[in-house]
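Weekend entry, working from home. Most of the wet-lab plans are on hold until the incubator is repaired, so I used the time to fold the two sequences that have been sitting in the queue since the last round of cloning. Logging both here for the record. First:
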Amino acid sequence: MSTTPDSAVLIRPARPTDAQALGALGRQTFIDTFVEGFAIPYPAQDLADFLDASFSETATARKLAEPEAAWWVAERDGQLLAFANAGPNGLPHPDATPANMELRRLYVGKTAQGLGLGTQLLKLSLDWMQAHTDGPLWIGVWSGNEKALKLYGAYGFEKAGEYEYPVGAWRDHEFILRRD
């Protein structure tokens, strides 16, 4: 990847041909953020099972093909740097329905941190989500991710509940955020 300052970052809808690169970026970003960054002590087999189920090329291709969902990627010189995924809500909250929209993932790779890509992808996702529902918007976020909680709070999201997010047999304590 070129690191010259004039290399433009392109944000575009994800394509089926992005599945392998998206899966690799998702896998590495999850490891960088939650395993190395937050030092969550996932048991090795739970982590491996989760990473394979969530970020294999096959799993990613299946998610990309979901008709009611949207994906965007940020790329520079052909390398994916970040991505966002939104679609019908699946969070376990009594007021939430699949007709509401959920920001499912917003991942920025380690080398792209600080470029503003997370904010750009968030704004794009929120616009799409609002255009595809007349109900509230939802986000699930790990309870210890203060940076994400602060970012989402700045965009009007408030804590509406909590749940346990499975990483294999391990459970992460997550907050459910809502914006009306």
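Second, folded right after the first finished:
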Amino acid sequence: MRCTRLVIADRYPIVLQGLASVFATLPDFEIVASCSDGMSCVEAIRTFAPDVALIEDSLPDVTASEILAIAGAGNFRTRLVFFTPEIEHGDLAAAIAAGACSVIPKHASAKTVVQSLRVVAAGGTLLPGPAPGLVPAADKEASGAIAENMLSALTEREREIMRLVSEGLPNKAIARRLSISQGTIKVHLHNIYQKLAIHNRTVLAALVISQR
């Protein structure tokens, strides 16, 4: 059995202890470093080159976006997974959509966290949403066709807003770009969510990227 080498990072010792106790019972995981701040986490990734790093998205000294930038500049091969209180995270939306990282909600069960990290370690993709999962290769063509049919229900303006969301722009920037109010943007996003049966902009951005 292949062992997944793991770095974990969280500012709260009790969270680190909880994660360590979970993974200590699993023969297919090995925690190579446990960190309480961002720079220690980055250094651990650089030193140990783990398969996966599970990182709190709000460490005290370095933001998630900064960690992604450092990882990109250093060509780190480690798969980054951010532990976040909410699955929707504006700063990470574009990175998630581009496949640069994944997220797991902090309220997820231990079983879900383990399952999700196994998916990531195997090269799979976590889908943003209430229950992360893997898109089976055999289902990708069918999933793409369904998504395309759903997108056909959108207006031209809604598609334009979707594209800008996928670029990581907040509502204020989108409103400025399109010369309309933020209130109108919110109405359009509500309509898009209703038509596509989704609940946040992270999933929306991922959907756009998947259609390119």
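Plan for Monday: verify the second prediction. Strands lie at 4-9, 29-35, 52-56, 79-84, 102-105.
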